[in-house]
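Standup notes
- HV: blocked on the assembly model, inputs below
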Amino acid sequence: MNKFLLSSIGKKTVMAVTGLFLISFLIVHCGINALIFYNDGGETFVAAAHFMGTNPIIRTMEVVLFVGLVLHIYQALLITMENNKARPVKYAVNAASSNSKWYSRSMGLLGTLILMFLILHLKFWFYSRFTNSHNEHHTLYNDMQEEFQHLWVVVLYIFAMISLAYHLVHGFYSAFQTIGLNNNKYTPLIRNAGIAFSIIVPLTFAAMPIAIYMGWI
Amino acid sequence: MEHKNLNLTLKIWRQKNSKEAGNFVSYKVSDISADMSFLEMIDVLNEHLINAGDEPVAFDHDCREGICGMCSMYINGRAHGPWQGTTTCQLHMRAFNDGETITIEPWRAKGFPVIKDLTVDRTAFDRIIASGGFVSVNTGNAKDANNIPVPKDDADKAFAAAACIGCGACVAACKNASAMLFVSAKVSQLALLPQGQIERETRVLNMVSQMDAEGFGSCTNTGACEAECPKEISIENIARLNREYFMANLKKKDYL
């Protein structure tokens, strides 16, 4: 199995499997955060967040998630470095846009943008979790309300979600292709589901800071 | 069809041998018939160069019918030039406009070192084939063609994969210089047929291992190879290669 994981196809497989796992995380994260749209002063959202923060299975998955993310980034760096070495002399003229989409060629750049956002994102929420002792007067929902009063934060989130959307448009389909699922029956379904996912999830996420900033919730 | 003649500027990569550094040299060619093939246009240039006592541009070519896979030029940033599903020899000068500057480069990949000018060493592909791209057949009388039943769908897919001429355009066009479209076509054409079953696992293991050893990159599913392939081989084959490789690793007797 070692030889498999170190082969070109094995490394791609790790990218695909961790990518699909991160996609499944996005569904959960997006679903729970979307509870703020109940517009009940964050009551449902805070209850769900409390469950996620205290349930031992979810807490364990948090560690798995972190490992998955690190693995996804590590493999990406490894593959990118090896792929750069595969063409030591570059083309003087390269009409790449005539044979492939820009976002499929820019997964590293899009991923880096997402990672930069993620560092800021996690810094804030870790800070929120460990310093502001939440109680019935000051919840995670209040933190969200405060954070998204700043225009630059809202703009940053929107920009990050655009990066995520393009990363997903290629990543979603690409993961299935890498694990070997490509046929006439399922590929159109996967392609369309991937596009729908890449629009719905980032759009829902982006709607949160926008709605709070605009004072809709 | 309206006939026209073209005057062109060619920016061609010149490199004496694999050791020395190369550079672009510009040439003017005039009165090029739009009905000429791209290689015939280079022939015209070379005749002028030879008459002037200069070294002609070295380039690979053989059948000039689009079936041998020898021609290999990166024309204006695209493998085999601007036409889809076409080799350089089948690309005609009507694809270009009068007064245009055309940049011509060799395939660029670690696995395809430049030998001279536009000629690259593609023996890496031969070594990949030698590592497993075959079926071992005992000698004797040829069997009746319909003795071995093959499902029509499998036969069609194997045939489509077997259309690969091994020109290397997939490697040239890929941003990672990955050879996976080539290897997947060769693995697929045999894995899909009954005759290929005996060596099915060892074949894919050895061919992928050789592909990695040759220094080709890995696939990031941009689809550039499929778009530039003169035989329009589908990346469905790459998904099959991934499956075959994974399953072969699981079934391998000494897999731990």
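- HV (later): unblocked. Helices of chain B lie at 38-51, 123-132, 152-162, 169-173, 180-191, 200-213, 224-228, 236-251. Residues 236-251 of chain B form the longest helix (16 residues).
- Next: hand off to the docking folks.
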